[in-house]
Design a protein that fits this description.
Layout: H1 3-22, E1 27-35, E2 38-45, E3 89-91, E4 96-99, E5 115-116, E6 121-127, E7 130-135, E8 140-145, E9 152-153, E10 158-162
Antiparallel strand pairs: 1-2, 3-10, 4-6, 4-9, 5-8, 6-7, 8-10
Organism: Rhodovulum strictum
Pathway: Lipid metabolism; fatty acid biosynthesis
GO molecular function: acetyl-CoA carboxylase activity
């Protein structure tokens, strides 16, 4: 590998680290192909959880995070409750940006109190310029919405509570 390629790879890795910080991600993995038998596999990660939404499902820091404005927190909800551990939690299947409505200015897919059926779209997660519809895993009532529209989410982060 030439020094020029090495410098370009270092710049590429630094750019990935900057993306990680800018979008509050905890991990980013990329494979860069140079030719038939030449590639660069890069995985950039950080151990601290993202400040907007937590990363792994069992992260205890989730309880300390404020609820989104759309979420309702009845008096019965304990402040130390971890939404990811709730039996009705719908978690993110991927890293991306969550949208609660099909397009800006339109009505949300669901609101707190709505009854949903299995397979009904709850929200969209944009990942790599692809809009992924997130279906309800079961029928129920939307009790809490734990994210804001346009918020970055990570794999396993709780999105909503269905009961």
């Amino acid at each position: 590998m030439t020094n020029t390629t090495h410098e370009a790879d270092v710049a590429f890795i630094q750019a990935l680290a900057e993306l990680l910080r800018e979008h509050d991600l905890t991990e980013l993995q990329v494979k860069r192909e140079y030719g038939e038998d030449d590639s660069l596999d890069v995985r950039v990660s950080r151990s601290a959880p993202a400040p907007v939404l937590s990363a792994p499902m069992a992260m205890p820091a989730m309880a300390a995070m404020p609820a989104a404005p759309m979420a309702i927190a009845p008096a019965a909800a304990a402040p130390a409750e971890d939404p990811a551990q709730h039996p009705g939690a719908v978690t993110s299947p991927m890293v991306g940006t969550a949208y609660l409505q099909p397009e800006p200015g339109s009505d949300a897919f669901v609101k707190v109190g709505d009854t949903v059926s299995e397979g009904q779209t709850l929200l969209i997660i944009e990942a790599m310029k692809t809009m992924n519809h997130i279906p309800a895993p079961r029928s129920g009532t939307v009790k809490r919405i734990l994210i804001e529209d346009g918020a970055p989410v990570e794999y396993g982060a709780p999105l909503m509570i269905l009961e």
